[in-house]
Amino acid sequence: MKKNSLLFLLFIAFVPVFAQQSDLSVEKIMQDPSWMGTFPENIKWGYDSQNIYFNYNPEGNPGDSLYKINVQNKSAIRKVSLEERREMIPGAGDFNKKRTKKLIIKNESLAIADLKSGEITQLIDLSEEIEGPQFMADENLVTFTSGNNAYLFDLKNARIDQLTKIEKGKKKEEKTEDTSEKDDWVKEENLELLRIVNERKIKKEETEAHRKAVAEKEDFTFYLEDRTISNLQVAPNAKYATFNLITRKSSKSTDVPNYVDESGYTVNLPARSKVGEDEITVELAIYNFEKDTVFMLNTESLPGLEDLPDYTEDYPDRDWEKMEREVIPSRAYFSDNGEKAVVNIHSKDNKDRWIVSIDLENGELKNLDRQRDEAWIAGPGVGYTFYGGGTFGWLPDNKHIYFQSEETGYSHLYLLNVDTGNKKALTNGEFEVFNPELSNDKKHWFLTTSEVGPGERHFYKMPVMGGKMEKLTQMEGNNEVHLSPDGKYMAIRHSYSNQPWELYLKKTRANAEAEKLTEGQTEEFASYQWREPEMIEFEAEDGAMVPARLYAPTEATKNDAAVVFVHGAGYLQNVHKWWSSYFREYMFHNLLTDLGYTVIDIDYRGSAGYGRDWRTAIYRHMGGKDLSDQVDGVRYLIENHGINPEKVGIYGGSYGGFITLMGMFNEPETFKAGAALRSVTDWAHYNHGYTSNILNEPSKDPIAYRKSSPIYFAEGLEGDLLIAHGMLDVNVHFQDVVRLAQRLIELGKDDWEMAVYPVEDHGFVEPSSWTDEYKRILKLFNESLLE
Q1: CA terminus-to-terminus distance, the chain
Q2: Do 159 and 186 belong together in one domain?
Q3: 687: helix, coil or strand?
Q4: Could you tell me if 464 and 547 lie in one domain?
């Protein structure tokens, strides 16, 4: 008996450490997400402030449906019938000043809705699509666009006037007679000989010239030529219209082959062009109705328009001629009275943003605020899209505009008096502001901030001209607040690190209690004790404190191995106290921890949530600080959590896959195994908008691309590498990993393999694909780190 016991103990001692057990499995966590439950999305209020509408799926249908809760009967969650949905007032449209009526598009017709009675009255039905309905300052007048033109509708007299005449193509040139030299001579001789014939000819020409002059004055037409029109809108005083003109030059686009098309043939999917193929020009046009003419916004006087970016100093042999940089103006933003307008202008290299006022009589501009960033202009509420975007608008006094800026290093809310030029910061501190909105009475701001800490989001109320912010939410985590139209209630979509999103109701007071309205988790999902990751910071090599989430196993299950997870997108935050958009990865990390792994998830340099310096630390060198932060995270685990330096793996998707490759190629002594999913391997092959901001353009700044692209460092591979990619990926093309595979073959590398997914785009959809991919990742770590 003692001999048998000894043999049993010896067997236990030599069982591999990865034989730890878990209630989770890859198959379980990667199945259709409906196994977790149903969680509210797309929260909206009814106009009577009595009903909260949201997408939900308690019945487990193939797709979500619309449900509602009445604030007077909060326990009843009711599905909205198709008939009720048809009668609902659409969300898009324009309110009158008192917010009692709303212009909408209903059944492709222009209509007006009475928000108290719910009655909808059809106003106009045209053969062409109607868009952009808008009340004028005189609310008896409304405007809309159809085709490429703007129209004015008089509600009292039911009369429509066309305000603009904009046509596609070019003005038709008058035909001229094709005559020979002999014919011309005969005609001239005839006119010299016959006085009356000559006099009649002269009179005819004068009459025709007068007719043309009158016609052109009465019937001015603006021709688009080879341009398209966007953002056509009428000023509230109905004196002007503005629109953007977009010219697209031909650029070489790419194709993504679909090998599993239903036809049985290989079909090419049209995809984007590559960085550097930016062939777009945008102008802002002003249509003056009184003068019956169109003129363009003149940007020549913008301060610093000829300033060269600092990176040009790295290319002293090039002749960097000072020249006006190309800019892209946003749409015009009109004051409520229509007498003033401001425009957001970005330089195409995205180093500058100008906020300007424009003279609507002649198109001249006046600079109000210039923001310069040698990396790139962006940040919460700032936006770095070419068409403006972000937080921007007017106060009702027709004097002040509001906007967000990273002037202090963090994105804050500002007011600027367009008459005096005085600028005032309404918020300040080492935190960021998100989605500020004016209250319906225009007396207060409601805004979300990270003032409590970068890992939380709370909702505040603040006087319109600035002052003390009143915190209205208390629940730890993320509070997405939707204010009722009457301002009395807050519908809060809330989540915590280990608790998915649920819906709460709270009166709009700081000391009111939040009442939970939904309970969406299934019994199966709730039965597992999902971990609350520990929020930590560790010191990087340059002294910066780097935030991370830590999943630590118990001492009894710990296997001294670690896995580093790298989130995607680059500019994204995953170290926070709310339910992650990476919920599958979160569940996988729970599985890994059950099996004895220590998992760390880092908000490396370039991540969102930590201000301008963190955001731009990757400028001109992706795979620099963002990679060294992963290495420093491993050092922290070795020094503080007893991790074996020989047992560290790394994985991530998209940008996370890119960092994984850079880690495997450039830090082989740190990472023994890596799984690179849907990875960028060469930034010169990615899209323009994202890449050019961070690395400039490849033809202008090749140094940045060579430093930042994994394909240049593939010879450094020493550990075990898994490459996984969807073959229908129209974002990061499958071509990226094909080129890398050929590079690895040519270098004679052995310890790598590639898994391809024929039916998947950038974001996987099929549970079978998710399951296959993550079984391979788990197998990689178990075999490379534990055996």
Answers
A1: 32
A2: no
A3: coil
A4: no
